[in-house]
Every structure is written in structure tokens, then in C-alpha cells.
Amino acid sequence: MSTRRTTVAPLPGAGEKAGVVEEMFDRIAPRYDRLNRIMTFRMDVGWRHRAVRELALPRGSLVLDIACGTGDLCRDLTGAGLFAIGIDFSAGMLAAARTDAPLVRADALCLPVRDGTLEGVTCGFALRNFVAVEPFLAEAARALRTGGRFAVLEVAEPESRILRAGHSLYFRRIVPFLGRLLSDRAAYSYLPASTAYLPPPADLLRLARDAGFTDVRRALLGFGAAQLLTGTRR
Asked: Which site in 18, 47, 122, 141 is 20 to 30 Å from 134, CA atoms measured?
């Protein structure tokens, strides 16, 4: 695991983003789950359960969890009777994983999966860490069979002005402070700032439809702090 201390402000451009993000997640992997529980007040647990339910797949279905990290979603998928496989770009995250699901180190934008192989695809809070959103959606569509389902969790902003102000204060000030106190200053400054990489909600829905998905829906979770994007492969 790398021990380099990388500063990620300003946000990395497309040419350097993959390397910066990989090294950052290698670095924070040992404390990543603990920080997630603290910073989301354990709401992230319910959000992942919701994502698995929204797949609405029969038991035994093959689901690829992209950017699986330490295996949280893989455990939920397995617990729901689905056959999960996790992939992640970060060797550090895979080394810290706590799941019995098979894990593979691979690039989310170049999946090591044949066309039409999967019944489901999940991804938890990694969309803004990819070099680009469109190729991720295209790869997910390519790997899914017709009628297959995807469920993507990501951060969001509340629609209410009051809630949005409170969320901004917490996410952009308190989260970096807690990250600096408990883990890594650079990483937890990057994570809130990285929302700049996310397309606006309407554009995100359009990109999913353009990639080959139908019945594309977006639900806000946690008073608007998170979003769940779901759809079906045409």
C-alpha cells in the first residue's frame, strides 16, 4: 500500500484523476468503513439495503458491484440471496475488504465481463470518482443482459433551501474536519469537493437513458443527502 501523502486541491484533471483517486483510497482504506458510519450517522447502511431491494432480482442472480471498496454492498447482495462479485481499482480497498464474495482488481470503465453476462450492477458512492460518467454507464449497459437492473448510490444535495444550507455546512466543513481528525485531511477535503464532477440530476438521468437504460428513476435519500439511480437494460 502506498504511503505517499497527496494533496488533492485543486481537484485533479482527467489525465491525473485515476492515479490520484487510486492512491487516496489505498491510503484511507483501513478506516474507511468506520468513517462512513460516523459521517452518515449509519444511514449509509439503510441506503445500501434500499439499493439492493430496488434491483428486484430473483435469488441467485449474478450481480457485479463496481468500485466495491471494502465489500459493504457485496455483503448486502449476498445476504439477499444474490451472487455478488466485487471489482475495485484500489488494491488497498480490496485488501481491507470484509466479504466472502469473489473480488477482482479492475477498471470500472473497462469491465472484465462478457457482453450480456450480468443480471445486475451496483455501485456505491463512486460515480464522482470515475474519470467520466458516460463510459461507466456504457460499460454497465454492455455487461448487463436485456432486462438486467442497475442501482447506483451517490451523494446529493437536498432540494429544500434550509436543508441544503445545513447539508453544505456539514458536508463541506464538518466532514473534512472529522476526516482530518480521524483519518486523512487531503482525502476528506477531496470527497466533498468531488461533487463538482457529478452531472446535474436531469443530465444524469439523460445519460443513463442514452446508455441504453429504460425506466430510469432517481430517488433522494437521507433528507436529500444521497441519491439512488435505478434503471433497466433495454
From this structure: 47
- Cα separation, 146 vs 222, whole angstroms: 31
The domain containing residue 143 runs over which residues?
Answer: 14-158+189-233
The distance in angstroms from the start CA to the end CA of the chain is 40
pLDDT tens, N- to C-terminus, the chain (234 residues): 333 334 445 699 989 999 999 999 999 999 999 999 999 999 999 999 999 999 999 999 999 999 999 999 999 999 999 999 999 999 999 999 999 999 999 999 999 999 999 999 999 999 999 999 999 999 999 999 999 999 999 999 999 999 999 999 999 999 999 999 999 999 999 989 999 999 999 999 999 999 999 999 999 999 999 999 999 999
* Alpha-carbon span 85 to 99, nearest angstrom: 10
8 domain residue, yes or no? no
Residue 119: give its domain's CATH number: 3.40.50.150
For the whole model, what pTM was predicted? 0.93
Domain-embedded: residue 145: yes
